[in-house]
């Protein structure tokens, strides 16, 4: 896993034998065990790492008015019960524009107003709730609804 993994050597003296993984990949999910031997004592602990991913299809760049699919997956083993999507902290209801099914959100005609942070929230049969955020960027025209601009002769126009 090198060079994505590090241990803070200076923290070991204080009893902190934390492992840092940056960035985390889907394949990193699983059980990790740390063992530390000091003099005649051996200490160990286990940590289970779960990973959640949000993917975009088709891959970037997203163009205004072209359909897209945001997919949310987790390494959690229980049955998925519910998926909720939030945009700018507001719950996104299913509509003609937004369709949610089995962890995925389909946006049929993405607009510039759909750009920004999207959060998927997965709820499982064992009541575990897991969420992740995706920053959606959309290429398009973010101007006035009437694209006619008047400028005085001899002046500049943008």
From TrEMBL:
GO molecular function, one term: MHC class II protein binding
Keyword tags: Adaptive immunity, Cell membrane, Disulfide bond, Glycoprotein, Immunity, Immunoglobulin domain, Membrane, Repeat, Secreted, Signal, Transmembrane, Transmembrane helix
Principal location class: membrane
GO annotation, cellular component aspect: external side of plasma membrane; extracellular region; membrane raft
Membrane topology: Single-pass type I membrane protein
Organism: Todus mexicanus (Puerto Rican tody)
Primary role: May function as a ligand for MHC class II (MHC-II) on antigen-presenting cells (APC), promoting APC activation/maturation and driving Th1 immune response.
Subcellular location: Cell membrane; Secreted
A single GO BP: T cell activation
Protein name, as recorded: Lymphocyte activation gene 3 protein
Subunit structure: Interacts with MHC class II (MHC-II); selectively recognizes stable complexes of peptide and MHC-II. Interacts with FGL1 (via the Fibrinogen C-terminal domain).
Sequence similarity: Belongs to the LAG3 family.
UniProt xrefs under Gene3D superfamilies: Immunoglobulins
Every Ig-like domain range: 50-131
């Amino acid at each position: 896993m090198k060079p994505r993994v590090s241990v803070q050597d200076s923290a070991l003296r204080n009893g902190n034998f934390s492992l840092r993984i940056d960035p985390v990949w889907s394949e990193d999910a699983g059980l990790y065990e740390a063992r530390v031997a000091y003099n005649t004592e051996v200490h160990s602990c286990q940590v289970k790492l779960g990973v959640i991913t949000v993917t975009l299809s088709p891959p970037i760049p997203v163009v205004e008015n072209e359909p897209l699919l945001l997919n949310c997956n987790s390494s959690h083993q229980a049955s998925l019960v519910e998926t909720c999507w939030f945009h700018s902290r507001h719950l996104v209801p299913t509509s003609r524009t937004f369709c949610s099914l089995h962890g995925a959100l389909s946006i049929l005609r993405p607009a510039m107003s759909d750009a920004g942070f999207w959060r998927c929230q997965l709820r499982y049969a064992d009541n575990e709730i897991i969420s992740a955020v995706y920053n959606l960027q959309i290429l398009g025209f973010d101007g006035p609804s009437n694209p006619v601009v008047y400028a005085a002769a001899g002046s500049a126009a943008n």
